[in-house]
């Protein structure tokens, strides 16, 4: 899995890959995104983690967290309970 930066400087990921990581269908991910039910938090690393980003995605039934290097490649990940993730959204 890889995050890419679009022309506007926003990070984007393939929705099929993200749905698989969350353990839901791509159609469900797209529907929940359109309804505003998908929350995303991106936290830039500091200190020893500088250049890395922690990305957390939460929807109604699933949550996933990945750590990406400065080139956007996934280097660590875990699936989580959606209740264990804070509702704060950071862009």
Descriptive report:
Pfam families: DUF6522. InterPro entries: DUF6522. The structure is a single chain. The chain is of the alpha+beta class and 91 residues long. It has one domain. Helices cover 19% and strands 32% of the residues. The protein contains 2 helices and 6 strands. It has helices spanning 15-22, 26-34; strands spanning 4-5, 11-12, 39-44, 53-58, 63-68, 74-80. It is globular, with a radius of gyration of 13 Å. It starts with a strand and ends in an 11-residue tail after the last strand. Mean pLDDT is 85; it is low at 87-91.
Gyration radius over CA: 13 Å
Share of β-strand residues = 25-35%
Strand order of the largest sheet: 3-4-5-6
Average predicted confidence as pLDDT: 85
The tally of structural domains comes to 1
What coarse outline follows from CA principal-axis ratios?
A: globular
Question: How many strands appear in the DSSP assignment?
Answer: 6
Tally of alpha and pi helices: 2
Distance between the termini: 20 Å
Judged by helices, strands and strand pairing, the structural class is alpha+beta
What is the H/E order? Answer: EEHHEEEE
Share of helical residues: 10-25%
Summarize the main sheet.
4 strands, antiparallel
Low-confidence stretches are 87-91
């Amino acid at each position: 899995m890889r995050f890419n930066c679009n022309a506007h400087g926003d990070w984007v990921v393939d929705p099929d890959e993200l749905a698989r990581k969350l353990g839901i269908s791509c159609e469900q991910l797209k529907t929940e995104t359109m309804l505003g039910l998908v929350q995303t938090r991106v936290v830039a690393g500091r200190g020893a983690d500088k250049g890395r980003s922690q990305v957390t995605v939460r929807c109604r039934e699933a949550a996933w967290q990945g750590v990406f290097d400065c080139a956007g490649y996934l280097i660590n990940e875990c699936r989580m309970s959606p209740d264990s993730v804070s509702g704060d959204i950071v862009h």
